[in-house]
Amino acid sequence: MRLVGLIPVTFAAMLLASCDGEAAKQAAEAAAVPAPKLEDLPAPYNTADLARGKALQGRKCGACHFVQASRGNQVGPNLHGVFERGVAKADKYNYSPALKAFAEPKWTPELLDQWLLSPDSFVPGTAMRLNGITDETERRDIIAYLLIASRE
Ligand code: HEC
To answer: What is the number of alpha carbons within 13 Å of residue 91 lying toward its C-beta?
Structure first.
């Protein structure tokens, strides 16, 4: 009979242990990704023009986003660690319900490419006010820059 009482307790303890483990793992993952070099990025990002990506990022995103961790959020969330931390997970940032409900757990270069092409149609109801970037080499260069700068 005593076993019956123990089972839920043991189960709860196991659940707690696995949640803790998961949070610790995510934190370690976010910290552990070193900034890659351009040639180590997946295609087509490994042939991007980084200087152009940096300039475009400054011009098209910089009014709303900081990339360096130390600078915090602006109109938009800080983009440091954006590929590791999960979608809509910047600390102390108040996301729209639309982005919080986004179906994918993490940003990938492919998802970011569709997001930047047309934020409004990719995530209807998003609070990000950006006219889509229709030039695909511009998107490639911005994403390549972010793949590196968000990990520096
Ligand atoms: C006019 C302001 C503005 C501009 C310009 C802008 N953003 Fe945003 N961005 C936002 C806001 C606001 C959000 C939060 C959206 C929401 O909660 O729906 C956001 C969200 C994001 C996210 C999701 C972050 C997360 O934590 O999940 C990414 C990635 C992003 N922006 C990238 C970019 C890039 C790259 C550019 C430039 C090409 C850009 N943004 C330009 C305001 C902007």
So the answer is: 7
